[in-house]
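Forwarding the complex inputs:
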Amino acid sequence: MSVPKIKVGVLGATGAVGQRFVQMLQGHPWFEITALCASERNAGKPYGEACRWNLRGDMPAHLRDVILQECAPGIDCQLVFSALPSETAGEIEEAFAAAGYGVCSNARNHRYDPDVPLLIPEVNPEHLALLEVQRRNRGWSGFIVTNPNCSTTHLVSALHPLHLRFGVKKVFVVTMQAISGAGYPGVSSMDILDNIVPYIGGEEEKMEEKEPHKLLGTLEGDRIRPAELTISAHCNRVPVRNGHLEAVSVEFEEAPTMEAILEAWESYRPLAQQLRLPSAPQPAILYNPAQDRPQPRLDRLAGTVPGMATVVGRLRPDPLFHAKFLVLGHNTIRGAAGGSLLNAELIVAQGYLGPEGAALAQSLQVA
Amino acid sequence: MSVPKIKVGVLGATGAVGQRFVQMLQGHPWFEITALCASERNAGKPYGEACRWNLRGDMPAHLRDVILQECAPGIDCQLVFSALPSETAGEIEEAFAAAGYGVCSNARNHRYDPDVPLLIPEVNPEHLALLEVQRRNRGWSGFIVTNPNCSTTHLVSALHPLHLRFGVKKVFVVTMQAISGAGYPGVSSMDILDNIVPYIGGEEEKMEEKEPHKLLGTLEGDRIRPAELTISAHCNRVPVRNGHLEAVSVEFEEAPTMEAILEAWESYRPLAQQLRLPSAPQPAILYNPAQDRPQPRLDRLAGTVPGMATVVGRLRPDPLFHAKFLVLGHNTIRGAAGGSLLNAELIVAQGYLGPEGAALAQSLQVA
Amino acid sequence: MSVPKIKVGVLGATGAVGQRFVQMLQGHPWFEITALCASERNAGKPYGEACRWNLRGDMPAHLRDVILQECAPGIDCQLVFSALPSETAGEIEEAFAAAGYGVCSNARNHRYDPDVPLLIPEVNPEHLALLEVQRRNRGWSGFIVTNPNCSTTHLVSALHPLHLRFGVKKVFVVTMQAISGAGYPGVSSMDILDNIVPYIGGEEEKMEEKEPHKLLGTLEGDRIRPAELTISAHCNRVPVRNGHLEAVSVEFEEAPTMEAILEAWESYRPLAQQLRLPSAPQPAILYNPAQDRPQPRLDRLAGTVPGMATVVGRLRPDPLFHAKFLVLGHNTIRGAAGGSLLNAELIVAQGYLGPEGAALAQSLQVA
Amino acid sequence: MSVPKIKVGVLGATGAVGQRFVQMLQGHPWFEITALCASERNAGKPYGEACRWNLRGDMPAHLRDVILQECAPGIDCQLVFSALPSETAGEIEEAFAAAGYGVCSNARNHRYDPDVPLLIPEVNPEHLALLEVQRRNRGWSGFIVTNPNCSTTHLVSALHPLHLRFGVKKVFVVTMQAISGAGYPGVSSMDILDNIVPYIGGEEEKMEEKEPHKLLGTLEGDRIRPAELTISAHCNRVPVRNGHLEAVSVEFEEAPTMEAILEAWESYRPLAQQLRLPSAPQPAILYNPAQDRPQPRLDRLAGTVPGMATVVGRLRPDPLFHAKFLVLGHNTIRGAAGGSLLNAELIVAQGYLGPEGAALAQSLQVA
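Prediction (whole assembly, four chains):
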């Protein structure tokens, strides 16, 4: 007997992140796309005409003729994935949440609201409890859940098991970020061919001040108490298509051995993996032992769910702090659309989309 | 009245660094190439036939028919520039020094010998006094002077004026190094197109343990007392042709303001610049105030002597240390051949090539 | 009931093409790797140690510990795939054929032997009849079958259905070939970053004089009568990882309309597709109607078997000849290892590996 | 005694081509910039603030504080260089010509007007006689002269000496064009990294139908009789910063030997070179005899005036036509701003800017 899937919509379906949502939702065991929404300019046009598909492989054929709708409540679905630009995401997402939709957003607008979870399922699933607070505060029947910035996601994913065991105190991180992180058309080829641009607006602030502290923070009553760690970030754009590589040095509360760090990564099996969420890679963190890995081209799709794992490598003692290593992750999959999708899976599995959703999830997981 | 130039030879003239020596010596006011030397395999062939010229512009026409000689004493010159690979540089350079030649070497073999200057003219010109020790120790009538590794050169150049004023204690540095640093054929295009290779053999050790400490060290009697600073380096190869970019965070003995750091760079006028050595850029350090600079493509040739200056930018407070900033420099010009060339100029100007050399230098400088 | 697979070996398993063979043979329904062979230098080592895996994803885990054998008869298999360099391929392949092995070779050594099929299953399957001639001539119990050069393969694949209908007389072709075509390390990054190298040794000769004429030729008795067409080729290396793009202008015996050309491509269903060989893409030729396609990055993996289809686009009248269009194909999949693999599948299906092979193929195809 | 220079303005000074005009006019012996004009949006701002300088080296320091003016007659100069986009160039250039200014335009708007010279000084200097017709037709006291499209310029430059001797009948050309040809931001890095875009809007039409025929045409009375040749062009965008490379096959009226073609190029000394115009490279055409040249990175700046020469190479017989070869030229120097600048120099030298201009030119040339 086939169980009906959960109906989902994509807001901002024609852009780079929107296309990833569409691609990743193809054949998803729990979700089915029933609405594609775009800007006023494109609403009313068939998706195949309004969207210049930029991912490998063609646009899913059955979506070509789907007529784009406006980004406003009324569309036929329970959950929306938001790939909206920050210029418009704020109000539109609120309108959807107020109208009873679940919103899984990749936009930065609500990430830092105290009652909105900034979620990585492996890292802080308990922060979903904020949804009660959010509903109470705002009187919404729906909700908003956000995922962090692409460069933060993989850094925090790699740090989380170490933080649990040894307490992360200080982090020095230099990112080498792929061009796809800037969307389409994004970075001009004139700026990046044979070049590096050592500046990405707002990126260092997000990493130093905003996101890791909330993600690694502790739920205390109605609030998240931010984690106490200090981060120094240098962010760079490099001529690589996909995959953010980060050079990281860390000081802990107590000095671990390199073996202990390795063991912390290798034994890491957080809730998302225990629940066997469909988009959760097994394992969540891969350690590549080669002396010159991870590399973006070779490792950005590593693991059981391509683009969803965090890959670490080159663990070694640091002359100034305790340890240094590399972190690599796919920026438009786990770092954007895939992050939101996994959030949605956790939300469903935890019953936040109603008991039917949870039951469905369970029935499908067992199957 | 025309003064005769100093005769120089190039060892390893067919390789990538050797070609840079040849290119930079074209039209040099003090030096003239009178010998080009290569491996046994190529000795006896015309330079134009044995050397696959890989730099922009063609090989200097008058050198095409010069017959390559073997890398052994007996060639007609006073000074040799060594672009030899480390497999052979060690013994050959010693043989030349023993035979009375001055050797300005880009090879790493003798860099860490206690009686061999590891020299950046702006940073540690007083270390040339080691040449007395070297002659005494080894009984040579000639000498060997070395220049540091390309990634160290620009880092230490940027740190030097800050070290003089505020005392550098701790340095975090992540390099993004150009492909030309690996020579020719060097890095396979299969490894670096759409990719980063986060490992360069031996590079981190050079930066963390060996070169900066000697360069910033103090001459005490017959020895250099290494500077006491701690460095953590992550070295990466990126798809950029020329120009190493480095993200740097620094802790000082005493906390300076950002203005004081800027002022230290801007007022920096070391000996090489005071002497107006022909290859010394004026100024030695350029601060680019744009928020997204320096960039390799736009800035690697900045300054009065293309490829010889160190460019800094994005100075800002660091959450963990006192300051962070970017350093950029050309790796095959100042970081290799140009570094050796400027060393030779200082050597001549300081009289280490005999009083005639110094007199010549002076007469030419005045002219 | 599980049917035992055909045992195959890979000669030259550690190189770029050898790795592709290994990758494509993973999970193959008819073939299973039972021997990996390499140069003397590497024989005796585990594959995982001798081979620097350069493809996305890791080396198949169960092959890591397989001990490399020398490239000489005696290995346990019926069929070998040869990824040997042309320096050694000639004699080794002959030794295997003499010893009774079937050899599917990607090397150029025997391509132009009159009694060796140069095979594209879609184009000239009837040329396999040369195997009788080959056995008779050479007294071999095994055989050698070759596949064409990567740039020829896709050109001829695109021309074949047009040649059948309209007769190809003259072809202008300019190739823009990917770096992977030169193997590993192959093209130096110093030569190709921000550059084009408008010369590939021997490539234009292969396209102008040797391969297309044999491929499109007619089997007459014991020989192939070469097709009578004239080709002018300009071959270029471009900074693209995979996928050769070719700009083509064609004059036919009789002028077709653009619609007739399109129809010829779209209705093309040659033997390999009719037989439903496992690696035969369905369809063999894809026409992309967008005005700016095919593009290497977006289309090199298009179709039902990634990397095996030929993609055409931008069909339009030519001011000098009858038509012009673009051809794109993956050079290391269909243009090398995949071409050999599909050849092997045709060989098996046609009974050239003995009736058991053909029966097996049939039983597996039905399943 | 210093002769006063001719005052010139740059229309569209902030864009990519406008910046090249500014760069190339630095230190020009005949011209001096007295006005920089930009769009309404930028008029009134200092150049250094409105213009994001994108060329190597910094913006000329003395122009930083120049206030941008609107693109309308009234500015203080005799001659304007137009780097305007085609959306606005048409009317603005006419207004300037009507008001008495000489206009040297890189825009395509007036290129095909029968009374507007489409000029390459080496190729068709006699077409300047159209200026009389233009003045008569339009009642202008000034004039408009245009330069061709970047890909046409170098093709026609290479063909011209061959056309003079052997008569060009048929040309097959495939271009591999640099990203800078599309301006800034122009080509998205997402479209071109590890890729080729085999389509450039309008480019093939310009080469096949419009520009070469006019350039190689004959002035007959008041009109240009177009040259009778047939061209087939395939235009591609490749990941190269600067330098268009073109693979060319040519059929002539009478078959020349390869030696005769070489000789035609080598003995080519057209009017612009005879007049020793300041931006005319000596020689105009360079033949590089290496088997793998010209290459964009190595040869785009070859010759006595960097970026102004046309480089040819790989001349060899063509199986279909008489000869094939490669053509390379810098697209934003000779192919855009430099082409206009050389046009202006010819105009001045020929007296079209009044006898004072010609006298000035002569006095400066002699000096």
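The two ends of chain D are 11 Å apart (CA to CA).
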